[in-house]
Structures are given as C-alpha cells and as structure tokens.
Design a protein that fits this description.
- With about 375 residues, this protein is α+β, with helices and mostly antiparallel strands.
- It has a single domain (about 70-115, about 135-364), classed as Major capsid protein gp5 fold (2-Layer Sandwich).
- Helix content is about 35%, strand content about 20%.
- The protein is built from 10 helices and 17 strands.
- The protein has an 8-stranded mixed β-sheet with strand order 7-8-17-13-9-12-11-10.
- Strand 15 and strand 16 (about 340-350) form a beta hairpin.
- Residues about 35-40 and about 60-75 have low confidence and may be disordered.
Length: about 375
C-alpha cells in the first residue's frame, strides 16, 4: 500500500470517528433534555415543548407539526398545556393561599359571585292552619378586582443562541418565582387596584357574626398592646378559633409567618402541654389546637395593631379567579442585542364570605 493511500485511510477513519462522536454527543444532549420532563413523556407533549423551546431561542414557530399552541393574536405565545399545569403546581407549592382558597377559572372579565346572606323565615303550623308568606333570603354580589401580573426578564442575543442549558426550563422558573411572590402578597394585603383584594385590606370589627356589616371581618384582640399577654397566651388563640362557627371550623386552618409561629409554638395549656403539634409525616402540616398551620411570609409580624394570625375556612371565605393562562411575548426589538420575554397572567381574588375568616389583632 502506498503512503498516499495510507494517509487517505487514516483521514477517512478520523472523519468517521468524529462523526460517531458527534452522534454520541447529540444523543446524550437529547437524553439530558428529556430527563428534565420525565422519561415517559408523551410524544405530543415533547413536540409542544420542543416547539416552545425553538420559539424561545429563534422567535419562530414550527408550523409543520400542526400544533394547537400557536401564536396569539397579540404576537404572544401560549405556553403548552403541560408546562402551564406545571407552573400552576409550583405556584401552589410556593403560595399557601392557592392550597387553601377556592380557585376557579373564569371565561369572562366580568366574573361575579352571589352570596346567600340568609334571612329565610320559617314557622310551625298545624295540619289545616293557614300558611302565611315567609321572607326569602337576601343575596349579595361579589365583584372581583381585575389584576394582571407580569414578568419581563431579558437575556442577551448571544446567550440565547449559545447557552447549552434548557432555556425553556430557566424561563419557566423565573416566571414561577416572580408570579408566586406577587400573587402571595396580593392575596394577603392587595388593595384591589390592578391586583386582587387581600384579606387584610378589608374593614374589621370586634362584633360577632350577624351583627357586623356584610364584608367586614371579625377580629379578636390579644389583650396586650403590642404582643400576646404574659399569662395564658394560648387562651387568645382558643377565643379566636371559637369565634368561627362550628360549620366553618370543619376545614379551617391557621395562617401566619415563621416568626409568629415560632412564638406560638411555645404556648402551653394549664397542664403544661404544648398547643402546637409538629408534623409527623412529610407533606402533612403541623397543627395548632387540632387545626393545620400554614406559613405565609406575607402575613405581618407581631406588633401593635397588626394582624399576625389569620384563622378560617379559606375554601369558603376567599376565592381566587384565574382569567387567563400564562402567555409569553418574545421581544427582540426594545433593547438591541437583548431579547425580552414578556410573560403575563390575569388573576383576581376577593373575600366572598366575611364570616368564614377571622383575624387576631394585637391590641389591648
């Protein structure tokens, strides 16, 4: 064999080896990306995510696959259904209000609820006695303040083109973190202007159910100006729990921040037993006086005139209304050399039953 033939053979083998290595790298990359979404992912879901990832990187839709997740009329891109569901699941994990409250999806921006204020009158009557007309129950209408939550992260053009990690997953997590933070704060203290109306934004009174005006929440005071009382502090929590009617206590829960929980977890009854019981299993909340406790950093600290503890049946007392799913608009024009990803979602929230939620007020 001549030297030139040997040289050609070596070069051919080198090219074959390089091609083989490239194929191995490609397969490993595909396997790594698939692991982000599970090993047994349906092909339709994989196609949707691949299309979205292509859109994130290139700003183009792959219409050859005939996917239903197309470009919105405003130039936005609706996230594939499974990704949207994953985001909602993560929002639930981060914001306890989404676990506790009633969550509905509205198909109109004018979504409203009717609340029964009771008032029906009944009476005893003999077999043949005359029946007088009785009063019918009164109804109240709840309108939900409309709010739009958004995130607008940027990435450089070069980073989007060259990054080796999953851009779609990174974008998803950014959206989840920002939306969860904004939602959680609004459900507790939002003022109802371009955002949900939070529980602590409603008027309160010390008067009991049936006496307060509709839409006014009842508060129970601690008996001390800026803290819990020095003695029998647990009695305050017992009073708060029993200010809620028995029918609402089935399914009720506590909501407070970590600092308040740390203080309350040390309270004992007259026999020296702790009122707080730690969780005995992963995923199961701790309990206080037999009711589950959820931590929410948006509930204020213990301070004068603050409301550091919320107790109630949130499923019956507060409703979250999701108007639209999450959509993303790719913007390569606003800032040269960068690509912005404008994500938005419309969500509302309001107290629908002011008897189902009670507040602890730090006050003498």
């Amino acid at each position: 064999m001549e030297l030139s033939e040997i040289k050609n053979l070596v070069e051919a083998q080198g090219d074959a080896f390089k091609d083989f290595a490239d194929r191995i790298s490609m397969l490993e990359a595909k396997q790594s990306r698939a692991a982000l979404f599970g090993h047994n992912e349906p092909s339709a879901s994989r196609e949707a995510k691949q299309a979205f990832s292509h859109f994130v990187r290139k700003g183009q839709m792959d219409e050859s696959k005939g996917l239903s997740t197309g470009v919105d009329a405003d130039g936005g891109y609706a996230l594939p259904g499974e990704i949207d569901a994953e985001i909602e699941s993560l929002l639930v994990q981060i914001s306890p209000m989404r676990q506790l409250a009633r969550v509905v999806t509205a198909t109109t921006s004018d979504f409203r609820s009717l609340v029964n204020l009771r008032g029906t009158v009944s009476g005893w009557v003999g077999e043949t006695a005359a029946r007088a007309e009785t009063d019918t129950p009164d109804l109240a209408e709840i309108a939900y303040p409309s709010g739009e939550i958004y995130a607008f992260p940027f990435a450089t053009q070069r980073a989007v083109e060259d990054l080796s990690f999953d851009v779609e997953g990174w974008l998803q997590q950014q959206i989840v973190d920002e939306f969860a933070y904004q939602e959680g704060a609004a459900f507790i203290s939002g003022n109802g202007t371009n955002k949900p109306q939070g529980i602590l934004s409603y008027a309160t009174a010390a008067t009991a159910d049936g006496v307060r005006a509709f839409g006014t929440l009842q508060h129970v005071v601690t008996g001390a100006a800026s803290a819990f009382p020095n003695s029998n502090a647990g009695d305050v929590l017992i009073n708060l729990a029993h200010s809620l009617r028995a029918g609402y206590r089935q399914g009720a829960a506590w909501l407070m921040n970590t600092a308040t929980l740390s203080a309350i977890s040390k309270f004992k009854d007259g026999q020296g037993n702790y009122l707080w019981n730690p969780s005995v299993a992963a995923g199961t909340p701790s309990t206080l006086l037999g009711y589950p406790v959820y931590e929410d950093s948006n509930v204020p600290d213990i301070a004068a005139n603050a409301f550091p503890v919320i107790f109630g049946n949130f499923q019956r007392g507060y409703t979250i209304v999701d108007r639209t799913g999450i959509s993303v608009l790719r913007d390569p024009y606003s800032v040269k050399g960068k690509i912005g990803y404008y994500a938005r979602k419309r969500v509302s929230g309001a107290v629908v039953n002011s008897e189902a939620i009670k507040l602890l007020k730090v006050s003498a």
